[in-house]
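Q: Could you predict the 3D structure of Serine threonine-phosphatase 6 regulatory ankyrin repeat subunit A isoform X4?
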Amino acid sequence: MIDLRSESPLIQAVFYGNIDEVKSLLNKKIEVNYQSLYGKLRPLHVAAHCSGNFKPVQKEDSQEANSSDENLHETYIQMVKLLCQTGARVNIKDSNQLTPLHYACRSNSHRAVEILLGYSADANARDKNWQTPLHICSMYNAVECARLILPYILNIDASDKQGRSSLAHACFNGNYEMVELLLQNGANSNIHDKHERKPIHWASYMGYTDLINLLVKHGADVNSLDKDLYTPLLAACASGKSEETIKLLIDLESDVTSTTLQDSNIFHLACLNGHDHVVRELLYTHNLSIAQNSKGYHPLHYAASCKRGAFCVELLIGLNYDVNMNSHDKKTPMHLAALHGITSSAQVLFSNGALINVKDSDGNTPLHLAASNGQTSMVEFLVESGANIYM
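A: Sure. Here are the predicted structure tokens for Serine threonine-phosphatase 6 regulatory ankyrin repeat subunit A isoform X4:
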């Protein structure tokens, strides 16, 4: 936030929406591009920022704001125009390399955007994160602003520092209208970021079924892989945000046998994140089988290591999976629960016959792992349950 007490009268007047004071100061030839003490903001940055749905907090005895709530928005729009008319530099950047156009887009003020573009604002300007005003529109669902900007865009698929396009940001934020607009204007549905993640990965991870359908309609690949070999389906199982998303991706013929770079399949990821509802969806609706991975780890191991995994543990035990199954390094689910201090899962395992004095390939019992990792509550539980402290 700006500390207005130390700022110039012009920036104060702009911030509080006092257009008469702004006019008076400009008539006195005050510097229209005055740089604030904070963030290298100029009056035009402030006006563009306030031109959307922003409403400044007024002091009880403040005389700075002479506009009513009803016309405050119009006042800021007029100030944007006035500042441009009196020589404000429309492409000047603040300390984050944001231009007034970035601010107007973030405030979802299409009228301010229209004015700035009329004064040759650069629609392709980059901030410190290499984001253009179109990226900002996609992040804040400023659809009308984007419509105005698109005719000036040199590359609709321009990427930011993370390699993410405007379409990727729109998908992550669930902005259907924005996604539709970008695709209609030629955005690449299969463009990827630095981690090889595509817009459909983000839509799947966040659970936006409507966006998945829209992306597929425009050629998105449901089996595309990121750098960690996650498909959109694996991403959806990892997040567990929407069972409908998982059902849709399977119906769209996603590969249900795919595994990540760490050799985790859809069940491993769902259990690792404690999504018992996802496990039920995969088991009962799609009749998929559960298996250990190449290291011998079963979804039950993953469920036991998750803070929210107790329900998954109960579900898998109810399906008669062995509570004492070994991975290739001879770790049981109890070893994993002890290692991560998941007492709730350990209690479920123990009540269903899990052994607590069994050793892994390194000779460690669950008690060894709990103690060496500072899991005090787990140590207490294991000792109370009969763990041998002399092994």
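Q: Anything worth pointing out?
A: The chain has three domains: 1-55+70-185, 226-300, 322-390.
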